[in-house]
User: Fold this.
Amino acid sequence: MKHPFAKFLQSCAVALSAFGLVAADASAQSKTSLLVYTAIETDAMKMYKTAFEKAHPNIEIRWVRDSTGVITAKLMSEKANPQADVVLGVAASSLALLSQENMLLPYEPAGFKELNQMFSDQKRPPHWVGMDVWGAVVCFNTVEAKKLNLPKPESWKDLTKPVYRGKITMPHPASSGTGYLDVTAWLQMWGEQQAWQYMDALHENVAQYVHSGSKPCKQAGSGEFPIGISFEFRAHQVLRSGAPIELIFPKEGLGWDIEGSGIIKQTKHVDAAKKLVDWMASKEANQISANWWAIVAYPGVAKKMEGIPENYEALLVKPNDFDWAAKNRDRILTEWSKRYNAKAEPGK
Assistant:
């Protein structure tokens, strides 16, 4: 038989345990959960989430990740009943479309004036804020090229030479932001008629249009195809992994886009969403971005990247009209698909 005082202690322990569970449950319930649609690379997702949630322990990020084109289509399909709170790490050409559709909340984050203004929306207050720049690159497998006796291309137009037939992969512009920045850069550089003629000729040499901006460089790195049109983040990563690739920056100029963040206008968590966009504009967030990107929005933070030339920023096609790319997206993708979709990778 238990002593009455022991019974009392046991009762207290049970009560305290129950109180602890209630308190923990209340704490979990008080945490704001932000649904964030993103196209950032999976390499970066964990670092952003960990650092932000450490700075804001009462806010939790729940990611929905896919390629830029898929995320853009998802947001547009949900326009009447938005599900996301924030869109983060999505192409400026897509964010401009969301802005034109009146889906983004105008907001100037804390610290915005510290950022390079050319890499954000030009409206004031901005509808979206830039994080980093990504640009086109050609990944060239030197080992496979030697086996196949392929010369090293120096330009976009070199890629139309018959020697490269069936040797090139490229991102599909409807699903990949990288594919879309390539197409819109060519259209802006050369004009519509010449650009479509170029893409007709390039199409003859393309083996497959894949649904990711990263995949063509990974394919080149593994030797599946000797040439992959990709972007510098993934090219740098594949090169660092030891793959026998050389990074080629075509001399005519590079298509490019900006990864940015914006708040969905109908979010029920405006304050938490603003805190996330504030944090993405911070030096700390830009320092994380600088692990992978040669150009970030916060001046002086970017590092020298292996394989990326010193004049990389000067190679970016200018002007690059994101509003034009957004307004003409449906027209461009319809025409592109009509001409080239027969070589699209299955799926999506």
